[in-house]
Task: structure prediction
Amino acid sequence: MNSSRKIVILSGNAHPELAKNIATWLNLSVGNCTVSKFANSETKVLINDSVRDVDLYIVQPTCNPSVNDHLMELLVMVDGAVRASAYRITAVVPFFGYARQSKKDKTRSPITCKLVANMMECAGINRVITIDLHSSQIQGFFNMPVENVYSEPYFLKYIKEHIEEKGKSDSVIIVAPGVGGVKRAKYISDKLGVKLAIVHRANKDLLLSQSFGNLLDRTDIETFIVGDVSAKIAVIIDDIADTCKTLKLASKALISKGALKVYAMVTHGIFSNNAIDIINESPITELVITDSIPNQSNQDKCPKLKVISMAPVLAETIRRAHYGESLISIENYNKNDLHDL
Result:
């Protein structure tokens, strides 16, 4: 990469605060771009600064409350930049919408995540930077580089500094809220050198088929804890908090099995419907998320909610991508080591 080429950062309406924070870490300012709607709700974009022959980074998580609008804003901004002769366009998509629709699990169901990847590629995006993809294999949907930045190092640091009892490394147990999250949770438990527990929720239909119908009214068979959590501080690790019903059920089960406290650390805080009320009513002491999705209003409603900023590591990822440097050590990156452009 030609390091003399200028970097320009633009933002849509999804998360302008994150874009500003990333630009600040790079000693830059966010470029002037107007993103609005026509009277009939069509997306309207006007890039007011020159982007000719620049290394362009568009910060736009495709997140709630308007996933489709934010996706369309990104695509239209990219098209405008392509037609304005930007040298290279990188989409910085901290939360990748539609990532949970990445497989054909029913006969006529679409693989919408692949469709979105095709749309982004056709629009003219040359690279994608994201945080904790729901499934790592989604990177294979793209015929371009995809930099998947991980939040685990930040979670590890938070656990050591704010949750783990001083001098008692075995005071914590890491918990996977389901079988699908075991790999993510095991990474953190291995790094901390602590035990791993798994929350398993029984399938009522399966129980019925096995003639256990008389047990269906018993709540203790709906949620099982694999592992001993008694007298431990349980830390649930997951990538997405949407309705938060799973977190509430898991936390109640952990407390019932003797856990002293329950913390949850989740990368993407979607919080659909009454999710914040569910968290407030749950036994969870603290729910730690990243700023991949804007959640200022939810922080005001939920004192349990703590936000870790990913702006420093995203800024460093941008810097390394610009200079053609390796990203292999990005998980060991310390925000105090950020280099100037």
